[in-house]
Amino acid sequence: MATKVTVPKPTLSTIDAVALIVGMVVGVGIFKTPALVAGNTQSAGVALLAWLLGGGMSFVGALCYAELTTAYPDAGGTYHYLMRAFGKIPAFLFAWARLTVIQTGSIALPAFVFGDYAAQLLPIGEYSSAIYAATVVICLTGLNILGVQQGKWAQNWLTAAKVLGLLLIVLVSLAFAGQQPQETSTAAAQNNAFGQAMIFVLLTYGGWNEAAYISAEVRNGKRNMVRILLGSIAIITVIFLLINVAFIYRLGLAGLASSEAPTADLMRRAVGENGARFVSLLVAVSALGAANATIFTGARTNYALGRDFRKFSFLGRWQENTGTPKNALVVQGAISLALVVLGALTRKGFETMVDYTAPVFWFFFLLSGVALLVLRSREPDVSRPFRVPLYPWTPLLFCAICSYLLYSSLTYAGIGGITGVVVLLTGIPLLLLNRQRTTSTNP
Asked: Which of 35, 118, 315, 433 has a Cα at 20 to 30 A from 220?
C-alpha cells in the first residue's frame, strides 16, 4: 500500500507573509548596528545614504527572488533553486549550512538577546541569560509544532507590537523638546570605512529572502509573492530610515557612534529612565519576533532536505493536521539549543554570530543570483508570472553586490568565518554517504 505524501498547503495570507518577513528583518540588529554604521561614516548624510542604499540593494535582490519564487514555488526556497540549477551537491550543502550555521545561529542570537534583557529584570543565577534563551527556543519551537496557525498569529502580533514600538520611539524623539547635539560628523577613517558600514547595513537588512521558504504556503503565491517581497522591503526601508533619523536627531552622529545602546540612550535623553525601560521591553519583543520567524521559515528547508535525500527522510514528513514539518522543527530546535549552550560557555555574542554566518550566507546568496541566470537560459518554457526587469543586468548587479559582501565578510570575519566554512564542509562526507536516488521529482 502506497504511503500518503503530505505536502505544504497555501494557508498564509499576504499580511501573514509580510508580518513574517518584516518581523524577521526588523529584529535585534536595528538596536545595535546603527552605532556601528555611524562609526564608519563621516557625516549624517552619508550614514543615512548607507541605509537608503541598503534598501535599494535589497530591492534589487527582491526583484530576482520575485521571479524565482513565482516561477518555482517550493518549501525549499533557495535550496530548490540550487537543486534545479546546479544539482544535488550545492543544494545539499546549502541545506546543511542552514541547518548547522545560518538558520540555527540566527535563532540562537535573538534568543540570547532576549535572555540578556530578561536576566536584567529577573536574574535567576549565573547562567540566567542562557536559561532564558533556551526557554525561548523550546517554547517557540513547541508553538510552531502545534500548528501553522499558532505560529503565524504569534508572529503577526509580535511584528505589530515591534513596528508600533519603533514608530513610537521616532515620534517621541522628534516631539519632545531638548537641546540637540550640534556635531554632524565623526572621525571615521577614509579607507574601507563606507564598505565596512555597508556590511553592517546589509546584515541588518538580511532576512527578506526568507520569503522564498513560504512561497508554497502563500495563497495565490504566483501573484502575491511579488507584492510580499517588494512591499516588505519598502516597509523595512522606511522603518530603518526613520529610526536612524531619530538617532541622529537626538544623539548626534558622534553620540550615536559612541553609544553601546543607542535606542536606550535616545529614550533616556528624551523622556528619562522610563523611556529606557520601555526600550528594554521593545528589544525583548523584537527578539521574540525575530526568533519565531526564523524558526518558522528555517524548518521548511530542513523538510525539503528530508524530502529529497533518503538519509534525512525523517525530516521530510509534513504533519497534515498541524500544517507543519514537525521533525524538521525538532531537529532545528535541538541544534539551536546546542548553540545556546556554546554561547553560554563562550559569551562571545553578536559579533561572533556575524563572523560565523556571514561568509556562508553571502556565498549561497551569490549562487541564488547565478541560479536565476542559469534557469532562465536552461528552462525558457517555464511559466514566469513575474520577470526581472532589465534582464540580465538586474541579476548581474545582484551577483556583484553579493560578491562584494562575500569578499568583505571574509575580510572582516577572520577565524569565525573560517569556522563557519569548516562546519559547512563537514556536510560533504554526509553527502557521500547518500548514494540513494533522490525521492523528489526535481531535475
From this structure: 315
Show Cβ contacts of residue 64 under 8 Å, excluding neighbours closer than 6 positions.
368, 369, 372, 388, 394, 395, 398
Q: Is the pLDDT of residue 185 over 70?
A: no
Half-sphere exposure of 428 (CA within 13 A, CB side): 6
Please give the pLDDT value at position 396.
Answer: 96
CATH code of the domain covering residue 102 = 1.20.1740.10
Contact between residue 43 and residue 261 where contact means Cβ atoms under 8 Å apart: no
Question: What residues have CB less than 8 Å from 425, skipping those under 6 apart?
Answer: none
The reply to whether 3 falls in a domain is no
Q: 247: domain range?
A: 14-433
CA–CA dist 230, 297 (Å, integer):
18
How far is residue 338 from each of residues 122, 271, 348, 362, 421, measured CA to CA in Å? 24, 40, 15, 24, 18
How many other β-carbons are positioned within 10 Å of the β-carbon of residue 240?
Answer: 25
User: In this structure, is residue 45 part of a structural domain?
Assistant: yes
Determine phi and psi for 39, rounding to 5 degrees: -70, -15
Domain count, the chain: 1
- Picking from 301, 406, 298, the residue whose alpha carbon sits closest to that of residue 361 is 406
- Compute CA 380 distance to the chain's CA centroid, rounded to the nearest angstrom: 31
pLDDT tens per residue across span 220-254: 877 788 888 889 999 999 999 998 998 888 888 88
Q: Rounded to two decimals, what is the model's pTM?
A: 0.78
Asked whether 144 and 292 are in contact (CB, 8 A), the reply is: yes
Distance of CA 45 to the CA centre of its chain: 27
**Do 64 and 211 contact (CB within 8 A), yes or no?**
no
pLDDT exceeds 60 at position 187: no
